[in-house]
Design a protein that fits this description.
Radius of gyration: 21 Å
CATH topology of the largest domain: SH3 type barrels
Shape: elongated
Strand order of the largest sheet: 1-2-3-4-5
Strand content: 25-35%
């Protein structure tokens, strides 16, 4: 899901690296080595960028909660949309199909998975259907 964001981050990082190389006199091997270091460090830098950014309003989040069923306690996860912004540890509002929930932001996700929110409570939201 976030691979496109990572590619944008990587391209911006490479552009800044090439602009920075113009101010210094480097040999070809040094340029290649610097490019290799930047490429290997980019996933870690992207993870730090996600920590600083947090979750913004409108981002997709993965809501996790437990539910009692006939077989016992079942842990469920479903996709929702963040209605408020926040960082790890903050309580944010999340829109789920048919309800609005509040949950604690547990992680900011990674390259594939969206940020994870642990459900605290939710409210049912009834919508009116338009009559033709």
């Amino acid at each position: 899901m976030r691979l496109l964001e990572f590619l944008k981050f990587y391209l911006v990082m490479l552009i800044l690296l090439f602009l920075g190389m113009n101010f210094f006199t480097l040999s070809g091997e040094q340029k290649v080595l610097l490019l290799l270091i930047a490429t290997l460090a980019s996933p870690t830098l992207f993870r730090g960028f996600l920590q600083l950014r947090g979750v913004r309003r409108g981002d997709m989040v993965l809501v996790s909660y437990s539910q009692n069923s006939e077989l016992g306690r079942v842990f469920r996860k479903e996709l929702g949309r963040a209605l408020s912004s926040g960082k790890v540890g903050d309580v944010i509002e999340v829109e789920l199909p048919g309800r609005v929930a509040k949950g604690e932001l547990k992680s900011v996700g990674g390259f594939v998975f969206p940020p994870e929110v642990s459900l605290l409570y939710y409210e049912e939201v009834w919508t009116r259907r338009r009559e033709p």
